[in-house]
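Now for a chain:

_____
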Amino acid sequence: MRSGCGVKQLVYVALAVLTVVAGVLVYGLLHRPERVAPPPPLVVEKCDEAKRPLPPLRPELTAARLEVLPGSVPVKIDGAHPGATLRSGLHIIEAGDAKLQVRVEPFAEVVVEATAIGDATLLLVFGARCATCARPEAELDLKFNARAIGSVDALVRALGRGDWATAVQQMRSVPPDDRETPHVRRMFAAVYLLSGQPVVAREWIDGLPKGDVLRAALTAMDVREEKVGDRQLATASDRWNAVSERYQRLSDAFANDAGPQMTELSKKFNGYSDRFLAATTAKSTVECELVLHEATEAVEAAVASLRAMKTDCAWQKRVWSAL
């Protein structure tokens, strides 16, 4: 009888334990924390307007005049057939296997000639400087060296990629008697152009026969360069209007958000306006250009200040739309 009671007690104990365990499991199920979905990834909107350079103001008014001399090698500029003008800034000029990146200044006079020499193309660009070429640290040594090794094709190909340093080494192999030929004179001119010495380059071209097409073109370019001041003065009022209109758009758009900056800009423009009127009345090209430069820089500084005020895209787009 005692053993039966003991078994019953064990059963009761087991049932009690199971009841407690079941209660704990139920409690855990009822009170376990809900799974929280992870937050969506933060999408950062790209503000291209914050990094874009300012759009130029009436670039056609300051465009360079371009003359591409006729030849057997067609010339392309920025992948297209060239026109009569070239806007200031960076451009890619290609002809045959030659390719140069050049920087063109406002109101420049640019003359381009592409000549086939052997299997390569000699590309000459007067009035614009090579934008990727190194500058010499010392005077170029182009003296003839009987022990130097070079070839015309290698020389011209080096010039075609703007590598004037390699071209210099090649040109030391050119005998003195050959240096008076039109092609070699052009090669020497190319070396000096690429190394940033246009005056010396011009001396080599001036030694060509008077009937040479490149020499004649550069002589005509000299005449046009003497009249650049007239071109600047003729477009000064239109360029001033473009600058002042951009200033006015910025002032109207941000008078409430950037009052102090706009007030300061307005004070500057009152002074610029008086100076510009006096300069145009006196037909002073130098003063007109100086005022236009200062006014443009003041507007660019104001734009930079506005861009720095807020980084969100809505603000950046608002600044851009006022330009």
Summary: DSSP finds ten helices and eight strands in the chain. The longest strand covers residues 109-117.
